Amino acid sequence: MVNLNMSKYTIITLDEVHSTNSYAIENARYFDNGNVIFTMHQSSGRGRYNRKWVCDDSENIYMSIVLKPENINNYPFANLTQYLSVVVCRFLENEFNLKPQIKWPNDILIDGYKISGILAESYMEKNEIKAVILGLGLNVNLKNETIEKIDQKATSLFALTDKNYDSEELARKICDIFFADYDEFIEKGFGFIEKDYKDRCGFLGKNIAIRENNEKKQYFAKDIDKDGLLVAEDEFGSECKIITGDVLC
């Protein structure tokens, strides 16, 4: 284990772990606000709805940010993953001149291929939220032969640029961007990232499919509202707001 201490966060590097989110939850009481659990080798990664995140020895980014809110009542829990998705998009744009898109609520795509997933979970004591664990998986050095085994369209920085990268250095840059504006985001909520988020939602104004509770439904994606919810029109022309689900596009 190696600790890398930055001003607003501390990266705790593990050689290998089953899941950075699970590890962070299991040890949340011992971590401080801004601790970041990082590894390049994860044996049992998972995404939303307990889906398995494909892991191999490609030295990708698997990290979980431990956040301990001071004011639970005004904390924008629902928008944390959206904030991180904007952060990752800015990182990919600035560092690699890529054009990422956000698939609601927080998957990151390049030309329709998934490169990153985000998962938020909470740690509770006596029915009170004591910490939020914000997990990020980013395909960095994942090779084409492994990508071909994934059951959805995926890509990696290596596949896009034909270069290997120092994943820990990239993780640090993502944390720099995240914590640079984190306090202002906490104060202003989704409104702080609304334009940046919506500008990267390429599915708006299109017909989409959404999986809700294992049921696939058709919608027209109209907008993202002020709270970060997806505003859609169903097949009967009725407007609704989608709170949870997977956009299949």
Distance between the termini: 41 Å
Strand order of the largest sheet: 1-2-3-4-8-7-6-5
CATH class of the largest domain: Alpha Beta
Could you tell me the mean pLDDT? 90
The structural class is alpha+beta
Instruction: Report the sheet-strand fraction.
Output: 25-35%
Helical region count?
6
The number of strands is 13
List low-pLDDT spans: none
Note the run of SSEs as H and E: EEHEEHEEEEHHHHEEEEE
Using the coordinates shown, work out and report the CATH topology of the largest domain.
Answer: BirA Bifunctional Protein, domain 2
| CA radius of gyration | 18 Å
Shape: globular
Quickly list its features.
249 residues, SH3 type barrels, alpha+beta, 8-stranded mixed β-sheet, BirA Bifunctional Protein, domain 2, 32% strand, 2 domains, single chain
